[in-house]
Amino acid sequence: MVSGRALHFVFKVADRTLTAKFYREVLGMKVLRHEEFSEGCEAACNGPYANRWSKTMVGYGPEENHFVVELTYNYGITHYEQGNDFRGITIQSSEALKRAAAANWPVKESDGLKFVEAPGGYKFYIIDMPQPTDKDPVKQVSLACSNLTRSVEYWNGLLNLKIYEKKDKSAVLGFAEDQAKLELVDIGEPVNHAKAYGRIAFSCPFEEQPIIDEKVRKANGKILTPLISLDTPGKATVRVIILADPDDHEICFVDDESFRQLSQVDPNSDADLDKYIKADKSRA
Predict the structure, then answer these.
(1) What was the pLDDT predicted at 284?
(2) Which residues span the domain enclosing 82?
(3) In-domain check, residue 271
């Protein structure tokens, strides 16, 4: 069995200034940590780019008990084509709707669900109820799949996520009741990841990572990056394994022990983000 913990979803962002405004002033998230890198990540955390990049974690609370968003910014890259792979993140927050109205940020509606779009077109569905303070407001991440049965067999049968809800064209899975869930929606056509493709991340005990590796290999599943240690300047080194599900959604499993050290909230991160945004000349 894999005893995982849902951590975050990774977005590539082309405009840090507008993106920071959206997450801070519309969604009301906090900057938890900001990290700058001089060259590309060995596990392609910033995509297939070898240039300078940054990582900014934003969320409603510490990463140890909140599902957050990882914003990766590649210096000099001004646009990412979006595919049909990412459907949205669901958040419970009437307050976000009020903030969107105050900021003149468009609130749209689809099938009775209100949503706002982050720069780049990433959708955040908003449940119009008070934002909880005793639990994480982030409820689920929704991804497209081309064959629901096959995807459920992978996520449930191979990676051991529990099935919390199952319908004809969708399923909701997760590792625990108190964690953000993964919704898979069968779109009846191939999944196109384009250039904006993201990545969902989980943690698991260090000793379980080789078990995941072995299980995926035996099932002839895709391993994009075999077990590898990644350094963050001045912070903890973590070990990761990067997988791809049947529709090539990227999945990261990081060792929980080191990640808890790495993911400590940095009180200077908010100011650091602003500093690097101001100094960035790559978009000029």
Answers:
(1) 61
(2) 5-279
(3) yes
